[in-house]
Amino acid sequence: MTAFDHNPLRHRVEQAAAALSRNALPPPLIAEAIGARAGELTADGALSVRTGAFTGRSPKDKFIVRDALTEPRVWWENSAAMAPEQFEQLLEDALAHLADRPVYRQDLLAGADPAHQYAVTVMTESAWHALFIRNLLIRPGEVPRGEQAAQVTIIHAPTLSADPARHGTRGETAIALDMSRNIVVIAGTLYAGEIKKSVFSLFNFHAPQAGVLPMHCSANVGPDGDTALFFGLSGTGKTTLSNDPARPLIGDDEHGWSGSGVFNLEGGCYAKTVRLSEEAEPEIFAATRRFGTVLENVVLDPEHHVPDFDDVSLTENTRAAYPLSVLPSVAPGGVGGLPRSVVFLTADAFGVLPPIARLTREQAVYHFLSGYTAKVAGTERGVTEPQATFSACFGAPFMPLHPSVYGKMLAERLTESGAATWLINTGWTGGGYGAGKRIDIATTRRLLSAALGGELEEVPARTDERFGLAVPRAVADVDPVLLDPRRTWASEAAYDEAADRLAGLFRQNFARFGAGAGADAGPRLALAAE
């Protein structure tokens, strides 16, 4: 037992939650949110909410307590430190804040594998945040509970302003994680994604010690039991492509890869809804129209209360949070066998990467550590041309350890499983953003189906002279010109210039990992051009 367990303020908060709302179901939580004017119902019964100034995560306001456990293990170049005494003060202030307010408590699970599981208690002042996390994590009874499930406590006080002088923060926002005690304090932000990503960050710190590779990916399973993983940053199609009626979904965002297979950390989906259409993504569209789904920052038609998914006046990062159980095709128990396929997704706005390529193990680790996609003009203030974005392990903000730790584990897992690894570009062809066109989703699905179905095993491949990638020369029902991006450009010289630029950005990014990233975990340089 720790001092936190005996904290009188904590017990006051727990008593308040027990009296008001402990493990409340969606109807009363929705009623409370509407009563507090924190949300409104759509025409179809989803709960529409807004997150104010924060419409996305605030990675620069995330802190890890620097203590004897974390000091030698955390990659401090990527994580801000908080002194133990500052965290204690923040925790005390957050508990005092909740003690004077209605409290909503949810007791949930993270980790579908009972051998690698957390018992997560969330205490929040907001009914809709309680509904959000109930949608996103695993509800009691949905999977077997492990006898040794580690306890995680999240104190969520979004209307509390952190104090830099007292708490060591940059400003009024704090997402602070005590890895030794598995306690999280969130203050000064209404963005609900901070809750779910805090659980993931704890998992990413502890999982390697238990022999589990934590992964920011989606996963599904084919009719023959063939598990596939989909890595990709926001906007690359990770959720869209893994939602396939013919391949039941294990999960859409956070997983572990143990010696026995893959398991989902969550029990829900947090899908982007920007420009969502029923035709392109019917399963996700249907989920946005159900009672209990939480829609974040989605603009509603003022007369009919119908979501307008094309309206990005609040943010491009509009989201829907709903339980996995509402989808038509879900893998039982949130688990799958050892992966047979690993897919890295990138939305290359430079328009130079091939739409599909097979990777060697070394290239797979290289692209895993690189975590490349590109921002396009107009999505952020000041972005006027494509900008390369590199996020180690496709989730650097949530990876407390050095990327080489995760890269080495991936190399070992690929060797043990023999999984085929693919790079799929869901971005542009025929030119970069503004000149070329985006590869249509039907073509990407055809390429993905060919890769997962084994169609490309015997297909001859060419080696891309600049990126060293093995690109199939032909895929059924796909224009062969598309497979060679240089041929899709009006000017081959312009392609060469753009491709050389991207290759240089890859090398520049990878250099920051130092020699340690390449010896055990990594590449014998996947990019051929040096």
From TrEMBL:
ATP binds at residues 197, 216, 232-240, 281, 319, 438-439, 444. Pathway: Carbohydrate biosynthesis; gluconeogenesis. Binds 1 Mn(2+) ion per subunit. It comes from the Bacteria. GO terms for molecular function: ATP binding; kinase activity; metal ion binding; phosphoenolpyruvate carboxykinase (ATP) activity. GO terms for cellular component: cytosol. Its cofactor is Mn(2+). Substrate binds at residues 57, 191, 197, 319. Mn(2+) binds at residues 197, 216, 253. InterPro entries: PEP_carboxykinase_ATP, PEP_carboxykinase_C, PEP_carboxykinase_N. It is found in: Cytoplasm. Keywords: ATP-binding, Cytoplasm, Decarboxylase, Gluconeogenesis, Kinase, Lyase, Manganese, Metal-binding, Nucleotide-binding, Pyruvate, Transferase. It is an enzyme of class 4 (lyase). The keyword Metal-binding applies. It catalyses: oxaloacetate + ATP = phosphoenolpyruvate + ADP + CO2. One of its GO terms (biological process) is gluconeogenesis. Its EC number is 4.1.1.49. The keyword Transferase applies. NCBIfam families: pckA, PRK09344.1-2, PRK09344.1-3. Involved in the gluconeogenesis. Catalyzes the conversion of oxaloacetate (OAA) to phosphoenolpyruvate (PEP) through direct phosphoryl transfer between the nucleoside triphosphate and OAA. Belongs to the phosphoenolpyruvate carboxykinase (ATP) family. This is Phosphoenolpyruvate carboxykinase (ATP). It comes from Devosia geojensis. The gene is pckA.
